[in-house]
Amino acid sequence: MKKIIRTVLLAGMAWSAITLAVAQTFAPNPVPVPPITGTGDYIVTVDKPLYRPGKGPRVVVDEAHNNYQTMEDRFKGFADLLTADGARVTANREPYSAETLSQTDIVVMTNALNAKNAKEKATINKWELPAPEALTDDEIEALDTWIRSGGSMLLVADHMPFPNAVDKLAARLGIAMGDNFAFDAAFTYKPGDMNLIKFYEKQPASNTGKLHPSSITRGRNASERIPYVVTFTGSAFRVKPGVRFTPVLEMGEGSNVAWPFDHSDISMKTPFTRGAGLYQGVVLRHGKGRVAVFGEASMFSVNYAEWVGNYPTGFQNPDAPYNKQFILNLVHWLARSIK
User: Fold this and answer.
1) DSSP symbol at 237
2) What's the confidence (pLDDT) of residue 34?
3) What are phi and psi of 323, to 5 degrees?
4) 35-43: long-range contacts (C-beta < 8 A, 24 or more apart)?
5) Which of 42, 89, 49, 57 is nearest to 70 (CA)?
6) In this model, does residue 27 exceed pLDDT 80?
7) How far apart are alpha carbons 263 and 114 in whole angstroms?
8) How far is CA 37 from the centre of its chain?
9) Secondary structure (3-state) at 216
10) Which stretch of DSSP H or E encloses residue 250?
11) Which of 41, 189, 203, 245 is the most exposed place for a label (fewest CB within 10 A)?
12) Which has the closest alpha carbon to 296: 230, 232, 248, 252?
């Protein structure tokens, strides 16, 4: 049972070679499949771009903090999507300061890591835990001041150890991150089962995730309305008491959260808690600025799980037909094109 759980738990974001070896044992096609990088053959398009080409908001994708997602690889789909919508998307590889932030409208930070944990792929299971903060205190202060003055930020921290790496930044924004793994109530832990968490605006059952209605889910017209969104594992978090926020993705009844000491080793001995009432997505106002915090990264881009026959774990997944529009709506909200 331990091997089965370890196999399927990382359906959306796993990066461990140890997990890969076990996953191929249970995968429908155990023959090694060449991994797909970037968007592969999938072409990212936008039917009705909101902005004229190159005239949209200035969006910077953080690549200054050993980020697992970059524009050249795991976040290429995200960058291509926003570019197709007319946004001006660039990478940031410098520490944050008032000067570096003065030339942008939206900062996107996904799965940042401290340098001490940046060489995980070369030194499997050598995480320093709890994960040290990825940003310096000066950077956190600069981002907090910039957002309060009117900047916008999308902060994404997937499953452990990523939440702890941005814990201090998230706390300044009113979020208490959880260094955990989130599991859907319908997840069976059987070989080959994928942990797709579906959040419905009109829940078909109480054990499904709740997509809270808002201007983001409604979009600007009926063609942009979002009935449900899919995530691929990730983490779940809570909002600090007294903070005003708008819930977006709320875990359903029966969902579970695992709190392992080793990201590649989850078994029935791992501590689990209930996921109901925790969030995988919220938005809030921070001073004059806007903030979106999400606990899952694959949903925002085009990704493939090469250890399971290059299974699609992103907005190109056929079970996630509304994710792409959801991303656009969210960025439009951050850009103030949606109230």
Assistant:
1) B
2) 65
3) -60, -40
4) 35/304, 35/306, 35/310, 36/304, 36/306, 36/310, 37/73, 38/72, 38/73, 38/76, 38/77, 38/302, 39/76, 39/77, 39/80, 39/302, 39/316, 40/302, 40/304, 40/310, 42/77, 42/302, 42/316
5) 89
6) no
7) 16
8) 18
9) helix
10) strand 246-250
11) 41
12) 232
Cβ-contact 207, 250 below 8 angstroms: no
| Intra-chain end-to-end CA distance of the chain, in Å | 48
Task: Write down the pLDDT at residue 305.
Answer: 84
List phi, psi (to 5°) of 272.
Answer: -120, 145
Q: Two tokens at 36?
A: 């797909």
Cα separations in angstroms, 47 against 28, 83, 86, 224, 238: 35, 13, 12, 11, 35
Which residues, at least 6 apart from 114, have a Cβ–Cβ distance to it below 8 Å?
Answer: 65, 66, 128, 131, 132, 133, 134, 165
pLDDT surpasses 90 at 258: yes
User: Does the pLDDT of residue 14 top 80, yes or no?
Assistant: no
pLDDT for 273 equals 96
Please tell me which residue, 296 or 21, carries the higher pLDDT value. Answer: 296
Give the Cβ contact number of residue 88 at 10 Å. Answer: 17
Question: pLDDT grade, residue 125 (50/70/90)?
Answer: low
86-116 residue pLDDT tens: 999 999 999 999 999 999 999 999 999 998 8
The one-letter code for the residue type at 64 is A
Compute CA distances 194 → 12, 99, 190, 283, whole Å: 8, 43, 9, 27
Distance CA 332, CA 328 (A): 6
Per-residue pLDDT tens over the stretch 148-182: 999 999 999 999 999 999 999 999 999 999 999 99
Strand pairing report for 58-62 and 106-110: parallel
d(CA 215, CA 262): 39
Q: Is 222 exposed, middle or buried (0-12, 13-18, 19+ CB in 10 A)?
A: exposed
Take residue 151 and report the two structure tokens written for it: 């900047």
